[in-house]
Amino acid sequence: MLRLTNGRGVDFIFNTTDSPAAVGSLAGALAIRGSLATVAAMAPGTEVSFEVGGSLLKGWNFRTIVQGSSVPQQMVPRLIDLWQRGKFSIDKLVKKYDFADINTAFDDSTSGAVVKPLLVF
């Protein structure tokens, strides 16, 4: 990325991989005051290596994002309120599947046919 930006680096990187090596590489591609955010669910205990010495000159930051950085005690009541007022259609996001159809649920999730498959036991 440094080559593509003539050595400047990029201001924002949004990581969706679960690869520690990729995250470490991405940090090196940040511009001065750049930000690297990750939403990937890496296994507990996973460590990522960053080069810290030279990066001190850049002042970049790294953050993890869980559930959009929302506060559940605020977000859930807000979503319920929007749903009650007809402004948030849960039905367009969720689809129920009998447990016997678990493979179809996975396939639909992978293809984007459904955002949140729910298995019913």
How does the SSE layout of this entry go?
Elements: E1 10-15, H1 20-28, E2 30-38, E3 61-64, H2 72-84, E4 94-98, H3 102-111, E5 116-120
Parallel strand pairs: 1-2, 2-3, 4-5
Describe the structure.
The structure is a single chain. The protein is α/β, with parallel strands linked by helices. Strands 1-2-3 form a 3-stranded parallel sheet, with helices on one face. Strands 4-5 form a two-stranded parallel sheet. It starts with 9 loop residues before the first strand and ends with a strand. The longest helix has 13 residues, at 72-84. It has helices at residues 20-28, 72-84, 102-111; strands spanning 10-15, 30-38, 61-64, 94-98, 116-120. The chain folds into 2 domains: 10-68, Rossmann fold (3-Layer(aba) Sandwich), CATH 3.40.50.720; 70-120, no CATH class.
Nutshell version of this structure?
The chain is α/β, with parallel strands linked by helices and 121 residues long. The protein has helices spanning 20-28, 72-84, 102-111; strands spanning 10-15, 30-38, 61-64, 94-98, 116-120.
Overview features:
alpha/beta; 2 domains; three-stranded parallel β-sheet; 121 residues; 3 helices; 26% helix; two-stranded parallel sheet; Rossmann fold
